[in-house]
């Protein structure tokens, strides 16, 4: 199957591309390196050194004999998007190419506007290009479980049957997202559903939970195939960040009481889910939603699991929650559709956490402890970060890149 | 009360500003003249001649002795937005300043992207500026009944109580909008609700039906106080367009069977609703939704009412529906909150329709019959309009303006 991976240079896009390549698909990757640019802007770096995309692709071919075709450009450029679709002729497009950090979107007005414009316009351009070039292309779009928020009823997979004043209809599940980033994905979901309706496109919206882990069978084959690993207060996600904090002797930073419950999944399950979605395309005109996570945990539970797994002493620091979110809440979310397609989850256990701790330990000298604390506060309209007030993506000339390319 | 009217040069913004001014409020108007620019781009013009904003403001002062303060600029410029709020210090902001035509948003990729970026970024900038300058400012935002689509259950005012698997919660009403324009308003609604939650802002989202009528007590005081009146296939709304078609002997263009049911209201009720919302502000942090319409009609009913009211012969032309929408559907939508605040509706009757026909008749020599037919088709990604493929708002240099300013 011909599959194009958008955001194919990123944390999940790159290992997804390798996984699909090894599974026998013809894979192209598209990236504008925005994620690497955010590193320059924030003054942070992936914990694990990462090679440049061109090098990664060469190493993959050396190691596997398989080719992954790179396309360098920006989805907000509609001419580029159409050109890539015409040249590569994908049967499925896996769309990871969005700004994906909630704190980054909450830095200030410029970062909120950047996040929504970048994400919404990129996806709009993609929908138009698919409709123009080949409406049968299956768009596999990465959404987030954060689109739903934390309602006091069960979360379903995208749609809910509502009986109201004696009548019944199946409606889109109401969304109550918690950041301008999460909102951008809600906007995307509405736009995609509409495009499927008017143009007969087919799309799967993968509302993904929080991903943990860094190694996949393919990225382990060579150091230059490694994917990035973020632990900082802006891009670091909860379990990955805890592993790094434990290793460097930093208290685990739990926001509020830690009662926030979130759906989680292993990075290897992301790869499997994406392939399952590609292999089982929806019908023409169908917009469907899968909730892509395997287990739910509270933040406090995750912290305790890291405390238990780490051989040394680990403290927990309960910080005032920088976000506006419920710290204690009901949470029960359906996630059976991917299991029905055959997903066999990697559940979170001591082995997984130990492997995460080992990744962190091997790279402990690269940790910048100053980057760990939360610097973006939801109740404030502007953070005190040096980047606040400047437009994102304009630091290219100022940046000096620490290359890991050989 | 100090009230700023955004989009104060437009069809509803201008008469709203006059109404609020005559009712004793201190009124400022903000506009970037995008709506006049669309006329140049599309090669059409308001049926009723309209004076320039600066002239309108002068005439209003001559006629009424009251001042309306104009601010010329664009909401997508955050510096401008903040400056206006600091200078004018409004207690309420009435936000009409969005691209409001569904067909315009469906012309092609560029117009879809323009509509969503213009509307979403303008409103985001406004939310940030309110939070920074004065979070107590009440944002009265114009949404649309089209955000809801046509579900098979009753439409409520913004929120719905859902009981699901034995638990109950009050949730945002699910949205199924029917164009990239309507989608932009759904995106706004989500963004505004979130801003109220994190920053304690107060906002009323007025989900307005289709407005008919052109004259208000204030605009009738002088020809240069008239508001615009659109009858073309892109910006003309249903009843106004039918009135013009009847007068020039053009068949009424009903899309599909005409079974589409929509909430409607008289232009004078828009003015009253907006003032009622301003005078009854929500609490700090509260996001509330009013459905702003007074009656529901099918398109076929509206056409028949025009046929019955017009003294001459009127034909009806049932066109293939250029939109993707249900032509026959259930429709029952709540609209009690504005009535509870004291709204006394002007219901649609023969007098109203005759007055509309009279406006059309007085300006019949200005009608361009070529502009009436629908030119934008939802199932196509690009219309055949000359403007398709060019970025909106760039026609300024090419346009030769037929000024009505003296």
Q: What does it look like?
A:
Two copies of one chain form a homodimer. Chain A has a single domain, classed as Rossmann fold, CATH 3.40.50. In chain A, about 35% of the residues lie in helices and about 20% in strands. The first copy, chain A, has twelve helices and 14 strands. Chain A has helices at about 15-20, 35-40, 55-65, 80-90, 100-105, 110-135, 180-200, 240-250, 265-280, 300-310, 335-340, 350-360; strands spanning about 1-5, 25-30, 70, 90-95, 140-145, 160-165, 165-170, 200-210, 210, 250-255, 260-265, 285-290, 295-300, 315-320. In chain A, the strands form four sheets. Chain A has a seven-stranded parallel beta sheet with strand order 3-2-1-4-5-8-12, sandwiched between helices. In chain A, strands 9-11-13 form a three-stranded mixed beta sheet. Chains A and B meet through α6, β6, β7 and α7 of A and α6, β6, β7 and α7 of B.
Helix content of chain A: 25-40%
Shape, principal axes of CA atoms of chain A? globular
Specify the CATH architecture of chain A: 3-Layer(aba) Sandwich
Number of strands of chain A: 14
CATH class (first level) name of chain A: Alpha Beta
Number of helices of chain A: 12
Count of spatially separate domains of chain A: 1
What is the fold-level CATH name, i.e. the topology of chain A? Rossmann fold
Major sheet of chain A: size, sense and barrel closure?
7 strands, parallel
Assembly state of the chains shown = homodimer
Order of helices and strands of chain A: EHEHHEHEHHEEEHEEHEEHEEHEHH
User: Structural class from helices and strands of chain A?
Assistant: alpha/beta
Question: CATH homologous superfamily of chain A - what is it?
Answer: NAD(P)-binding Rossmann-like Domain
């Amino acid at each position: 199957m011909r599959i194009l991976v958008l955001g194919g240079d990123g944390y999940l896009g790159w290992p997804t591309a390798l996984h699909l390549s090894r599974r026998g698909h013809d894979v192209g990757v598209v990236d504008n390196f925005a994620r690497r640019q955010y590193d320059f802007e924030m003054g942070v770096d992936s914990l694990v050194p990462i090679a440049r995309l061109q090098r990664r692709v060469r190493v993959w071919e050396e190691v596997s004999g398989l080719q992954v075709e790179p396309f360098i450009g920006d989805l907000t450029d509609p001419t580029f998007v159409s050109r890539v679709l015409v040249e590569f002729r994908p049967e499925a497009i896996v769309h990871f190419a969005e700004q994906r950090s909630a704190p980054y979107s909450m830095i200030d007005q410029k970062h909120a506007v950047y996040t929504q414009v970048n994400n919404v316009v990129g996806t709009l351009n993609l929908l138009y290009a698919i409709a123009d070039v080949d409406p049968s292309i299956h768009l596999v779009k990465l959404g987030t479980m954060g689109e739903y928020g934390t309602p006091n009823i069960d979360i379903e997979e995208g749609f809910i049957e509502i009986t109201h004043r004696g009548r019944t209809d199946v409606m889109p599940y109401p969304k109550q997202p918690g950041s301008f980033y999460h909102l951008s994905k809600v906007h995307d979901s509405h736009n995609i559903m509409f495009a499927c309706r008017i143009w007969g496109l087919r799309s799967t919206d993968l509302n993904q939970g929080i991903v943990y882990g860094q190694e996949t069978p393919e990225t382990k084959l060579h150091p230059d195939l490694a994917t990035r690993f973020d632990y900082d207060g802006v891009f670091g996600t909860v379990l990955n960040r805890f592993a790094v904090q434990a290793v460097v002797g930093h208290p685990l930073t739990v926001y509020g009481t830690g009662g926030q419950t979130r759906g989680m999944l292993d990075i290897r399950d992301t790869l499997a889910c994406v392939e399952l979605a590609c292999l089982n395309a929806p019908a023409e005109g169908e917009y469907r939603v899968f909730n892509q996570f395997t287990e739910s945990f509270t933040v406090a539970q995750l912290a305790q699991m890291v405390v238990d797994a780490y051989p040394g002493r680990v403290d927990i620091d309960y910080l005032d929650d920088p976000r506006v979110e419920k710290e204690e809440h009901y949470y029960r979310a359906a996630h059976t559709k991917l299991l029905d397609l055959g997903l066999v989850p990697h559940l979170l256990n001591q082995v997984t956490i130990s492997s995460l701790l080992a990744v962190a330990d091997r790279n402990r000298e690269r940790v910048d402890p100053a980057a760990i604390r939360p610097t973006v506060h939801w109740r404030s309209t502007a953070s005190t970060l040096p980047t606040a007030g400047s437009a994102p993506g304009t630091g290219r000339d100022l940046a000096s890149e620490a290359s890991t390319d050989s």
